[in-house]
Amino acid sequence: MRNVVILGGGYGGVKVLTGLINTTLPDDVEITVIDKNPYQSFKTEFHTIVAGTKADIDVRTQFPKHDQVKYEFGTVRAIDLQERAIYFQNRSTVVYFDYLVIGLGSEDAYHGVPGAEEYTESVQSFSKARKAAVAVGNLPAYGKVSVVGAGLSGIEVAAEIRESRPDLNIRLLDRGGSVLKAFDPKIQAHVHDWFVKNDVEVLHYANVEYVEKDGVCNNGICYVNDVTIWTAGVQPHQLVRELPFTKDRFGKVIVNDYFQVPDHPHIYVVGDNASSIHSPSAQLAGLQGEQVALVLSDILLGNEPRKPKEIRLRGTLGSLGKSDGFGNMFQRSVTGILPRLIKSGILWLQKRH
Ligand SMILES: Cc1cc2nc3c(=O)[nH]c(=O)nc-3n(C[C@H](O)[C@H](O)[C@H](O)COP(=O)(O)OP(=O)(O)OC[C@H]3O[C@@H](n4cnc5c(N)ncnc54)[C@H](O)[C@@H]3O)c2cc1C
Known about the structure:
Elements: E1 2-7, H1 11-21, E2 29-35, E3 40-41, H2 46-51, E4 60-61, E5 69-73, E6 76-80, E7 85-88, E8 94-96, E9 99-102, E10 106-108, H3 116-119, E11 121-122, H4 126-137, E12 144-148, H5 152-164, E13 169-173, H6 185-197, E14 200-203, E15 208-212, E16 215-218, E17 221-224, E18 227-230, E19 234-236, H7 238-241, E20 260-261, E21 264-269, H8 282-300, E22 315-319, E23 325-329, E24 332-335, H9 337-351
Parallel strand pairs: 1-2, 1-9, 2-5, 9-21, 11-18, 12-13, 12-18, 13-14
Antiparallel strand pairs: 3-4, 6-7, 7-8, 10-19, 15-16, 16-17, 20-21, 22-23, 23-24
Helix pairs in contact: 1-8
Bound molecules: flavin-adenine dinucleotide.
């Protein structure tokens, strides 16, 4: 048997999987999907878990079933390139691979800020988002929440918590002079106005010096605080950081045109861990996953792989609670209910693969 192992069943990994099982899969191929969770998680919705506006089951779905697909659910501890083996935490199971796809997603980057890792909540995994939800949900009336980082995830977290809990004092710390610096001024103004109207305090030019159990110290001023949520940057997954591959300045793996690691062409990297000219996103991970499925399918059939087409992104969407949103679609900036409805529609489609 030839073993294809997909490490991480997120946006990238699942697209590789569905792409492969929707083509002709030779009989001697077995696919093993490894994930710490026994379901596919929709990370782009984790802010709703934190805010308590959606239930767990709304932001996950079952993995597809197929005769040639096996699942191993557990947290991976190490990838052994020599032995071509995957090892788990607290389990003796070893999974061997002939072809490996790495789609492990990213983790928080704390930029060396003292106390940030110990005293902040995270939205980067399902279990961490649930833990953040308990911290926010248990706050007494008028509790204080700080969200550090005003990129897409920080905006969505702050807005969703506001919608869930009108009583809370919410502060968003933004490193720049306006929120969402990667978006155009129309969107920045819309989001700014939403925060003013909904009483979310935004502090610009933030420079968090340290975080304590009950406060955030920013530009020499310490704000007393009940819960701090960190959305101030991500880095590649720790297992990827440990691999001796050539990386870019963000620590992402440099891949060739076929998403293969140049010195290990049987290893593919997709999503947040693959170096790209595009910013990391669920959409990018999914499109890369589709391409890898085509390449792998050709190789498994003994054909020369077709060169992947240039990736064209359709735009980015963000939510401000359940009835407002923003985004770039087909090179146009849109705000209000329309982008919000489209975002909900995308989730609906994703849940049905
Ligand atoms: C709150 C929030 C909102 C966001 N909103 C948007 C948005 O609106 N639009 C957008 O395009 N992007 C958004 N993003 C970014 C987007 O979620 C990521 O870019 C995307 O999930 C990356 O996909 P991926 O396939 O690389 O990894 P992921 O989808 O993160 O999948 C990684 C998988 O690996 C598994 N895994 C991790 N570690 C291990 C381990 N040690 N052992 C076993 N399994 C493991 C995880 O369980 C997971 O299933 C948002 C992110 C956050 C946090």
